[in-house]
Design a protein that fits this description.
74% helix; mainly alpha; 4 helices; 125 residues
């Protein structure tokens, strides 16, 4: 269902790299590698969220597994495609951690508010 996301993200990455002056043209092999790798990246990113469905797994552990798999997934494909230089892994890591925590906390508190609202409605009935 989300297979389209990989190539769309790829197009955004290429546009950003071109705007930054990093690339001007792409070879056929670069395009093929980019399309295949971002599609695989998207499938892995979508599939790893299954850890939250494992009821015996504590939420913090599921979050750690999710973050670790996503980090390795993104970093590996970004390095494979040459989208970030190896000496900038620290910057990627900081941005990844900040984004993951912000998104996770946003979703967590959104769901928590909905659950609290449902609980109040149940107690009123």
């Amino acid at each position: 269902m989300f297979a389209w996301g990989g190539p769309v993200i790829l197009a955004i990455v290429w546009a950003a790299l071109q705007a930054a002056g990093v690339i001007s043209t792409l070879s056929v092999s670069q395009v093929a590698l980019g399309i295949i790798s971002t599609t695989v990246l998207a499938f892995i990113a979508a599939g790893v969220s299954i850890v939250y469905q494992i009821e015996t797994l504590p939420r913090a552990t599921a979050g750690l597994i999710h973050a670790s798999v996503l980090y390795i997934d993104y970093l590996g494909f970004y390095l494979l495609n040459g989208w970030i230089p190896a000496d900038r892994i620290w910057a990627f890591t900081l941005i990844f951690i900040a984004a993951f925590v912000a998104i996770w906390l946003g979703i967590y508190f959104s769901v928590r508010l909905k659950v609290d609202r449902m609980n109040r409605n149940i107690h009123r009935a």
